Records
---
Amino acid sequence: DTGVSQDPRHKITKRGQNVTFRCDPISEHNRLYWYRQTLGQGPEFLTYFQNEAQLEKSRLLSDRFSAERPKGSFSTLEIQRTEQGDSAMYLCASSPLMGGSGYTFGSGTRLTVV
Amino acid sequence: AQRVTQPEKLLSVFKGAPVELKCNYSYSGSPELFWYVQYSRQRLQLLLRHISRESIKGFTADLNKGETSFHLKKPFAQEEDSAMYYCALSGQGYGQNFVFGPGTRLSVLP
């Protein structure tokens, strides 16, 4: 297991286009989280899953954002009709159901909307 | 509401000097506090948790509920400590989402 993987590493898209990011968590981790990080800020929570159930969504997650984790393994985050304000680093993290080891983060997907 | 503040955006110290990265939080219950670190070109990683009361890479942090602080300290800074440091808070119950502070960039000068 190589940790949390995110794909792609970088994405440049035109305003108005749809984009989809993928996250593969550590295989034995039940929980999966999506965060967004803009320049000069710490990561901001977007949503999280426990297995395939999406348990919490931030108000930051507008109607243009949707996340899925269909089989409780990998997850996708889709942004529809991208806007320049969506430009950010999108981070995925996973954690076990119990235990105090904190999150394991992926390297992130950097989105640039032009 | 949960909130984490880190008053310093940038902290520069000389090698061998003590370092203290400040973190204050607001939370109505009993939070769990963490420090995460991001070295250049690497992913965000957990440095330490208040609940384990451990020392990692010479760093320690004590939760002060009276002052609602969780400052990160190291007695003798090393150049390899240069990185972004984020303080994070999690609500009661493991697995609750984290609230991160804005981060402090530590620069250890030779």
---
Amino acid sequence: LAKTTQPISMDSYEGQEVNITCSHNNIATNDYITWYQQFPSQGPRFIIQGYKTKVTNEVASLFIPADRKSSTLSLPRVSLSDTAVYYCLVGDSLGRYSTLTFGKGTMLLVSP
Amino acid sequence: EAQVTQNPRYLITVTGKKLTVTCSQNMNHEYMSWYRQDPGLGLRQIYYSMNVEVTDKGDVPEGYKVSRKEKRNFPLILESPSPNQTSLYFCASQRAGLGSYEQYFGPGTRLTVT
């Protein structure tokens, strides 16, 4: 079971780019890297996932170096509504299914 | 609309009084799971199910039961609730397939056991 390490908290201001780095030294060959966002008292929401290099969607970008021992979630031009907890997860495989283990996440606080 | 629903959303009960939290999804997902979330501890998995009649323990299964008689429903049962089960509970579902990590979460059930 690959564990992840990410900062407990980060602060930013509106309009800035935020990069949250996650370390996963024991990632297995078949594992994907996934990021979720959670607002207070709501269920987590899938943001992005990737295997290597760079993945981009309408919300964020995910950068994964060649050794895959870390990854960086990039949020462009954050707003106050991006204040949330962000979880970095490395997927485990159980037969046909992939499961996730959530850690404590990174609390991102965006200020005006 | 694709969604996971949970009921009730809020529940206050007393120690030892059996309760059930329901979870239902309309996406025909095979995989379903229950989590609890406590301050400072993040999300911890209680039980999961890979398909009808197939369930398995997660990281914190003690004091909980589940059943999966239908694909869309995955109720969480507390036979004899205790105060340490006071928590925020989330149900989630996911489609099958390696490399698929997109789980859909319900709105949460806030349980207080006195």
